[in-house]
């Protein structure tokens, strides 16, 4: 993103705060550091090389002969049981609402807010409802099975989230900001045996090419904030962008759409180094889980509800018991 040039018209205090605190409009950017990018990649490559033949065996047994490492895959490493036997993905109201809101923001960004939020949501809805209507596991089927009242309510909620986003985010001038919205980023490592993959919601770049770090990575959240979890996901995206493009982001942020606020982290080398270690730890666990079925490391937690073993797992049962004891009656989550 450009650090100079004409500032977008804010119009509201919330938009001005976003320009100042998140986008940092007009603020000098930190120096880019190609040596740090090379160091981060080198740490990953050397850590993977240390896994030796175990990595090769795990990759050979994976789909397409490579270990795919994503933010959701790293989450599942909380427990070997969940990693080995996750429940099939099932669409739910919060997840579909979030997906539609992301798609609406993407379309609205490209269209430069040419229509009202409900019109944008209507187009997104029609596109998704007709994408795979014959697949019983698809979001298309889920949308088409809603009652008329539920469909209206969901459309209204998604349009409200798009309105919330518009209220805080000003239109950004195309000559000063290039946007990549919902675009996959992949980083192959270890000769292609490992691929880091993610889809950052919003990456903003400056057309200027100099020795400054000018990229901003934003993760949009439409649900309940989970600060630690959200930070880990965001840092993974920041690392991906740095490795894929060879240039450091100057900042990365989680933007909570319904609340209109951002949790921001500015560029720090140590933060990216810690993220590299977390990724390496995750890949090491992936390799271990792929090769050793005898030594299972089970750990209970909120994730147990996503595991196919939940109903007959003693560790999951104990986690539920502890959760019931630690939370007041009537305050238990789903």
Question: Order of strands across the widest beta sheet?
Answer: 2-5-6-7-8
Distance between the termini: 41 Å
Q: Average pLDDT across residues?
A: 91
Helix content: 40-55%
Tally of DSSP β-strands: 8
Short description:
The protein has helices at residues 13-22, 34-49, 52-60, 71-76, 80-84, 93-111, 117-129, 139-144, 148-168, 227-245, 269-291, 314-326, and strands at 67-69, 178-181, 185-189, 194-198, 202-205, 215-221, 249-256, 261-266. The chain is of the alpha/beta class and 334 residues long. The strands form two sheets. It has a five-stranded mixed beta sheet with strand order 2-5-6-7-8, sandwiched between helices.
Key structural traits:
2 domains; single chain; 334 residues; three-stranded mixed beta sheet; globular; alpha/beta
Explain what you see.
The protein has 334 residues and is an alpha/beta fold. It folds into two domains: 17-77 and 182-290, no CATH class; 93-168, no CATH class. It has helices spanning 13-22, 34-49, 52-60, 71-76, 80-84, 93-111, 117-129, 139-144, 148-168, 227-245, 269-291, 314-326, and strands at 67-69, 178-181, 185-189, 194-198, 202-205, 215-221, 249-256, 261-266. It has a five-stranded mixed sheet with strand order 2-5-6-7-8, sandwiched between helices. A three-stranded mixed sheet has the order 1-4-3. β3 and β4 form a beta hairpin. α2 (34-49) runs parallel beside α11.
Give the topology.
Elements: H1 13-22, H2 34-49, H3 52-60, E1 67-69, H4 71-76, H5 80-84, H6 93-111, H7 117-129, H8 139-144, H9 148-168, E2 178-181, E3 185-189, E4 194-198, E5 202-205, E6 215-221, H10 227-245, E7 249-256, E8 261-266, H11 269-291, H12 314-326
Parallel strand pairs: 1-4, 6-7
Antiparallel strand pairs: 2-5, 3-4, 5-6, 7-8
Helix pairs in contact: 2-11, 3-11, 6-7, 6-9, 7-9, 10-11
